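Question thread 4412

I'm putting together a teaching handout and wanted feedback from people who do this every day. The idea is simple: show students a protein as raw sequence, then show them the structure tokens that encode its fold, then repeat with a second protein so they can compare. Below is the first pair exactly as I plan to print it.
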Amino acid sequence: MENKESQEVSQKSPFAGCAILITALLVMLFLIGFSVVILFRQFGEIAKFTEERPNAIEVVVVEDREAELNRLAEKIERFRLDVNDDKSAVLDLNVEEMNLAIAAYDSFKDLRGMFHVEEITPEDIRFLISFQLNGKPRLAKDGEGGLMTSDPRYLNGTLVATPGLLNNEVVLLVKNIETEKATVPREFLEQMSPYRIAEKYIGSEGLGTTMAKLTNVSLGDGYVRFEKVSGKIPEDTITNEQVDAGSRKVLTFLGVAATVFLFFVSLILLLGHRLRKKRQRDEQGG
């Protein structure tokens, strides 16, 4: 009899009946609000060090340079054949050769107007860059397609990085991005690094096959060195700690935010539980 009365009292409590629904709505509103705030905060920070127009990045001239192009092609082809035959091989490319390769080979056409090798030292390699990024979202106008769109922003400056190997892929470990407008935040650099400059070549014949067999990539005074040691299994030269540095900070931030949110949800449920018990006692006493 008492259990039946308690059940009836519980059914009379609007909070008891809606607690799960309220919690679900709170979770949904939190996730939506949190995502929107983070998104607009991110776009606001990006706008500080990006520009509305791209910089003109030099693409070297290839006309009337047949002799240089032939030497470069022979150099690369000889290295490719040795690597694919599992022979020890070394390929050194200087600044001019790298820029010439970008301008001449279709495999690198996506880098034209976006990347230009400026300097190579034993410590790092410097690229002049003009990267297109998404700007703040806005409602689309007629002819733009979709409901939402964004105006592009451009990251113009100098990218300072060191090359390495990660999962049979040549990547760039970003050390800094220098711009005239503002300092690029460390959090942005960590999220961008390692930069997968050669991602599109993975699994492809030719360049992709050769890249997967490299055993080391290093820097010298004015050149980048690609190496293959016969019989050696390719290994990553970039550690998991370097790859996960930025992700750990994001996960930590999300963890703190989730903990605070769950604390408030738990507090609301606790107050609701106490209110329900109080109503039960009041009605039983009445």
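The second pair follows. I'd like the answer to focus on this one:
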Amino acid sequence: MSSHSYEVALHAEFFTKDLKPILNRITVHSDSSQPFRSREVVFEPLDAQIQRDSGAEPILLRARKELSDPKAPWELYSYLKPESVRVHPEATVRPWTTCQVVGDALSFAAALGYVQKSQIYKSGYAFRRGPLLILMAQQEMLDPKTQLPIPPHADTLWEVEVKTAHPIRNTQETPLSGAINAVLEIQLLMKGLLDLRRKDV
């Protein structure tokens, strides 16, 4: 058994015209739902280019904050490369490390030797279903002058992530197969409305 913790996920995209039926179907099959708005800052190591030149893919560090809750802490997390499609053809399974940060996560990341690469603001809906988190969101545009977010265009694609809410260790008590089956259940529930699939990023 591996010592890693994992995230299991499926992804999809759709146009705003399909929002209502998709929203209705996910709501019916969820335990809870709420609007959310988040900011995510992506960092790369100072030597990222050197790593790329030598053929290695640098590990990115991400800092995420829930903006709808003023008291929400920053969460720092990092993904490793997804497991091969031969091992897990049905869903994206990737090692996932996460920790909460009290105070300024951006300065903390800089102190670890990381530089900011990009930032993303998203707004949409968050659903919980058992061990899963379902995020349905549009990326907000960044104003080039102020670097502040502006609402998404009407034709901005909606992105859907169906994933495990917390990192999972592949043990006898919590086998990865249980999490994979849970996301595949959502894939089946959404069939005909949403094409949830594995994504390698």
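Top answer:
Good format. For the second protein you could add a caption like this: The CA atoms of residues 66 and 72 lie 6 Å apart. The first strand starts at residue 5 and ends at 14.
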